[in-house]
Amino acid sequence: MPLWRPRTYLLAGSFLLAGAFGAVRGSWQNICAGDTCPSIARIRTFEHEQTSKLLAHDGRQIAEIGYERRTPISLHALPEYIPQAVTAIEDKRFYQHSGFDPFGIARAAFGVLTFRNLGGGSTITQQLARNLFDEIGFQRRYVRKMKEVRVALDLERAYTKDQILEAYLNEIYMGRGYGFQNAANNYLGKNIAQINIAEAALLAAILNRPGVYDPFRYPDRAKARRDLVLTRMAAEGHLERDEAERWKEFPLPESEPTGSVTSLAPYFEEWVRQILDSRFGDEIYRSGLRVYTTLDVEMQQAAKVSMEEGWRAIEADSTHFEHPYYSDFDTVQAFSGSTPYLQGAFVALDPVTGHVKAMVGGRDFEQSKFDRARLANRQAGSSFKPFVYTAAIASGIPASHVVVDAPVVYPQVSGEDWRPANFGGEFKGPMTMREGLYTSTNMIAIKVGWEEVGIETVAQTARRMGIQTEIERFPSTTIGAAEVIPIQMAEAYSTFPNLGTKVRPFPILRVEDSEGVIIWEPQPERTQVLDSMVSRIMVSMLEDVVIRGTGYNAIRVRGGLPYQVPAGGKTGTTNDGTDVWFAGFTPNLLATVWFGMDAPIPIFSLGPGKRQATGGGLAAPVWASFMRRVYMGGQSDEDNTDYEPHGPLLPIESGWPLLPGLNAVLVDRSTGKLASRWCAEEDRYLEYYLPGTEPTELCDRSSRRFRGLRKP
After folding, report:
1. CA gap 45, 205 in Å, rounded
2. Which of 538, 597, 594 is nearest to 568 (CA)?
């Protein structure tokens, strides 16, 4: 039996090629029948898809949105060895052929017949054609190849060689995104213009089969392919042979670039994406929009660091914290429902515009994408009480109104009696509403809200201010049994520093198209919902929470927020310390903090001698830490190496002015009456009143005796 010789292979190959070209000629006219190929008009107007960029308020990029993540590059901005590496390995006759290279086809066919790898038959233009247009499809190989050739020829007539090569470098799939710019970032941690010859050869090697030549998974394969690229570059005259050999000694990247996946504000970014998707649809994934968001990068970093401090501090209390720790779980583990470890949420916004400056929706976006800042319904605890007192002030009840802190009993529909108590179990006798708020005394809020103002008025006040969750009409609602959402609490509290105007929290400043034309610029939504004088009185009452109440130690002492920063707010703690809150504000910034488990169970274990979680003990220090960084600057943090030191982010503004028409009167703290010589000097203080609500009686000896019910 005669042996096959090279001449025999060549003859057989010639017959095969002749037959193939005959088939091509016979079907060429019909290959694109029925509009199965893109039209020349569409080819001439082709623009590659671009991801939309999410930018912080100052223009710094924070994220990308797109089906195929890519960052376009200009061919002329690249070092010449990048296109040289690509053409050397993929299509050395790129600048000579017209889109279809018969020599390449013949070489590939001969390689198949001789069982040798002599390269593929597709030109760069053909590869671009099948990457650009779905019509080419994935039918039988010869049909697809015919369409590739037809479209490649049309591309060559529509574009210059450099335009085609530039499009190729931007469109090609590189395993970790699309295009050479993303490949340089994700494999090398560099901008494409900064890579050297060996790195350019590596990227050119990867593009052939990214899954096979991934340098982190298959370094030996990647190096062999890269070295082949360098050899081809030398063969084409782009490098001297000894230069190519030297570059072959250059090491491959040993580890993936750090920070290439971690997002600064993933919950915020997802919120923005949802808004854009509902307004622009598919355009946001393809058209290269530039979305200027309200996010402040440094404030977001401060929020993340402050929340992490809070989580660590709670988990460090091993005597009382008995839940699973966040560190017990693998970072790639995802939870379809609630997470078993401690969670939290944070929202900071400009109280004048509603622009959200920082947002943390949970502890780990990759493990749980549920946004607790915008979606979690949690009991408000005492952070709901300002709505009770706002309703009272608006109804004409002054902050100096005295209510007796004493036990009460309310019958329930179930037939059982509800016997509310104060935190700590003590009753302190008569006190003003102001004192009832800053000491967070439950009995005062219950009596004012349920007996004097009425729960319907309280609920409607909270609704107008921004609480959209269901508010049940029960006595317990006055002390925070209602569920609220952190971002709605921020919206509702914005009416205080804004002196009656509610602002809707929103994350987008403007949207520009790829040419820089503004196509959407949402305006702040501001609604006057309270009389400005009512809000001004509430501001002074909430300032007392920070000056002398439940927030003082956490904010001014432990938190270190200087006294020159005017601030007000309210702590919140639910039954058994299941949810803890602090919502507070300065003249130019507002923030809400919540901590809790996803399942409504106490943060700390219960029992005799056990510590109960409180808003003042756990949430308020985080609020103070954030505000301190904003107004005093942030220092480096050993436990958060990504946190970059910075100076003050906002100026310290003066406090709120006394509004015209609002009356300031010296009164007696014990009785709520006008101060006189019969009143103890230490009990005198300046109270604010709506016109016509000022006290008219002087305190006297008999009224002073009333104070005797109080415990020291």
Report:
1. 31
2. 538
**Residue of 334, 308, 338, 336 lying closest to 323 (CA atoms):** 338
Q: Look at residue 408 and tell me whether its pLDDT is greater than 60.
A: yes
Q: Using the predicted structure, report yes or no on whether residue 574 has a pLDDT greater than 70.
A: yes
DSSP state of 522: P
- Enter the pTM of the model: 0.74
| H or E element at residue 697 | none
Locate 98 and state its tokens. 């017209």
Question: Is there a single domain that holds both residue 534 and residue 591?
Answer: yes
- Give the integer Cα–Cα distance in Å for 74 and 79: 11
Q: How far apart are CA 35 and CA 28, in angstroms?
A: 14
Instruction: Compute and round to an integer the Cα radius of gyration of the chain.
Output: 35
Residue 436 lies in a domain: yes
The predicted-structure confidence for 509-554, as pLDDT tens digits, reads as follows: 999 998 999 999 999 999 999 999 999 999 999 999 999 999 999 9
Q: 159: which residues sit within 8 A by CB, 6+ positions away?
A: 167
pLDDT above 60 (res 19) = no
For residue 66, is it within any domain? no
Residues 398 and 527 in one domain: yes
**Do residues 695 and 566 both lie within one domain?**
no
Query: Roughly what angle, to the nearest 10 degrees, separates helices 124-132 and 141-158?
Result: 100
**Count: domains in the chain:** 3
Q: For residues 304 and 300, give the distance between their C-alpha atoms in angstroms, rounded to a whole number.
A: 6
Query: Is 621 found in the same domain as 496?
Result: yes
* Residue pLDDT, tens place only, 79-126: 999 999 999 999 999 999 988 776 655 554 444 444 444 445 689 988
